[in-house]
Write a structure and sequence with these properties.
Length: 196
């Protein structure tokens, strides 16, 4: 079965991870967070990219796609090898820029079908406040004001144009992510039920 992919996008702190966790409780999707995969690679003792990834994350910059796409491809292959029924994926926090998109198109485009983009729409202010709150316990190197300013800039300059591109292809499903977790999830469910 060809992998079926939903890209999950939105600003830092929009609630991508939170909503993906809720989705996998209710639907047969596998959640792959590009950020989580990069953080795991950063911590892997033998990784040749650990330091590079650490620098990019702290600076709110987007890691070169050759690194990210291999992590995603490997995770998808491992998932499907273990259980052939697990061919539906939520790819959270990717593609974030033109380089990401090109990397996906050259490595994965023929191997997987991108069904649509689930876009969590939220003001920058709400995004920043949620990340600062998360930063009290997340231990993340980028949940601080300085990194957040850069992450928001990267989001506006690099990621929004990717969302706009998918929008022009009629592939974006937008959810107002500024509301409470359960209200947001009600809309997410309606979208997923409709998409089948
Ligand atoms: N709808 C919501 N309302 C309030 N807080 C939220 C909501 N969704 C997520 N959060 C909180 O905001 C922070 C960022 O959420 P997260 O799901 O990690 O977002 P993202 O993956 O988009 O960065 C977390 O601390 C999370 O608990
Ligand atoms: O495809 C990706 C996904 C994430 N990141 C890096 O990882 C950080 C954190 O991403 P994550 O999705 O975990 O953050 P979130 O938006 O969920 O807060 C980003 O700011 C980038 O520096 C990246 O380079 N490429
Ligand atoms: Mg996240």
């Amino acid at each position: 079965m060809k992998p079926q992919v939903v890209f999950v996008l939105g600003g830092p702190g929009a609630g991508k991870g939170t909503q993906c966790s809720k989705i996998i409780e209710n639907y047969t999707y596998t959640h792959l967070s590009a950020g989580d995969l990069l953080r795991a690679e950063r911590e892997r003792p033998d990784s040749e990219y650990g330091q590079l990834i650490a620098n990019y994350i702290k600076e709110g910059k987007i890691v070169p796609v050759t690194i990210t796409i291999n992590l995603l491809k490997q995770a998808m292959e491992e998932t499907m090898k273990k259980d052939e029924k697990k061919f539906r994926f939520l790819i959270d926090g990717f593609p974030r820029n033109e380089d990401n998109l090109q990397g996906w198109n050259s490595v994965m485009d023929e191997k997987a079908d991108v069904k649509f983009v689930l876009f969590f729409d939220c003001s920058n202010e709400v995004c920043i406040n949620r990340c600062l709150e998360r930063g009290k316990s997340s231990g993340r190197t980028d949940d601080n004001r300085e990194s957040l300013q850069k992450r928001i800039q990267t989001y506006l300059q690099s990621t929004r144009p990717i969302i706009d591109l998918y929008q022009s292809q009629g592939k974006v499903r937008t959810v107002d992510a500024s509301r409470g977790v359960d209200e947001v999830f009600a809309d997410v469910k309606a979208i997923l039920d409709k998409e089948g």
